[in-house]
Amino acid sequence: MITRTLETIAVMCGGELSSAQDKNIEITGVVTDSRSISPACLFVPLVGERFDGHAYAAASLAAGAAATLWQRDRGPAPAGGGVILVEDTLAALQQLSSAYLHEIAPRVVAVTGSNGKTTTKDIITALLETQFKVHKTQGNFNNHIGLPLTVLSMDPDVEIAVLEMGMSSRGEIALLSRLAAPDVAVITNIGESHLLQLGSRKEIARAKLEIVEGLQPGGLLIYNGDEPLLAEVLAEPGFRAPEGLRTFRFGQSEDNGDYPTGVMAHGGGMTFTSHLHAEPALTLPLPGQHNVINALAALAVARHYGVSAENMVEGLSGLKLTGMRIELIEAASGLVMLNDAYNASPTSMRAAIDVLQSMKCSGSRIAVLGDMLELGPDEVLFHRQIGQYLDPGLTDEVYTFGPLAAHIAEAAAERFGDGRVFAFNDKEALIHALTAKCSMRDIVLFKASRGMRLEEVLHRLRDYSTDDSN
Fold first, then answer.
1. Full-model pTM
2. Given a cut of 70, is residue 468 above it in pLDDT?
3. pLDDT mean over 132-147
4. Which domains are seen in the chain, by residue range?
């Protein structure tokens, strides 16, 4: 993580020392949450609509922070540690991270997309770590605050940084890209997430392609060639590409630079070959055809940095994923649960259903689906389409949770008939129904937007199954 004197920090973030006598105070690490103070850290008090971190600056210094940033319009700064005066604490945090990144100079891979960006980031990291020291975005630290904190937590000898970039509106990814100045940018796909804010999938494509705004001259853009909207936006007269932009397309279609040539699903995940990786066959310890496509994007990054074929095999076998992205959990009773409850859009919902419906099962395949949020005025239609997408020959029962997901149940019932589709608005009632139904031979998928907290149902079912097996 960043270690600098307070005098140096002040220069890097465009601030001014409140007292020159504090210039030699050494800072180790940067914190924005007063509950996470570490010894000798710099506390950055951020200002939001409903909070002001400046109220916690004095307590943070007392808890061990060596210094704090202080916004000039917030009155007198607290005593008890070093103080750097700035015009805007968020802008100062972002400037500090950009300066630090420029100083330690790792190569940077930026990853965005409507779905699959976290999984793709994890696969890229697994591949690159076989030959380089790599630092990646942790958790959901992928926004205008999280990305600077990710950068500032890097060790100075990091060779490649893999940075996830999220968004909810136009301009956000452009800001992150300019802060990170990537050498490689990856767009996994364009889905329906954020239709409420952006209005159309083409506008989402424009927002995702903002990732090239900070791309280095001669940088490489790796994008999903199955999505025509990306090519359309790249060809728009007003699109600003960096000098010497190079592109590479991946996807299902054979007109991409890389595409699957053979895919086999099995208990350990997916084994596949591709146009550029005919042998040896690669095994991805993740279920789902969509994850093979994510892997193609990651393999393109690995090839760019010269990762050997042997190390690609090793990297995929050692893949470690961020939680709740098609996480396979087996209860002590033998019940198998697929936890994909971190987020949901129509695209990712269909992909998760494909995984469930493709798995071999001696019992029942059960889909537990919750509301998909932030889909805009067509949200009811999108939920009904998911109900229509479910195959009654490959899914045995459907349970929904939430007022929007009720439309999934309504549409599914038209094909499934009576006694196979159940809609709930009460979580406890849903838990009771599942615990009464599920057996050791079943596979249960959990998929919903994060706000539905559907993983709570999974945890209760897992604990019940464990207790029941004893």
1. 0.80
2. no
3. 91
4. 3-87 (3.40.1390.10), 105-317 (3.40.1190.10), 327-469 (3.90.190.20)
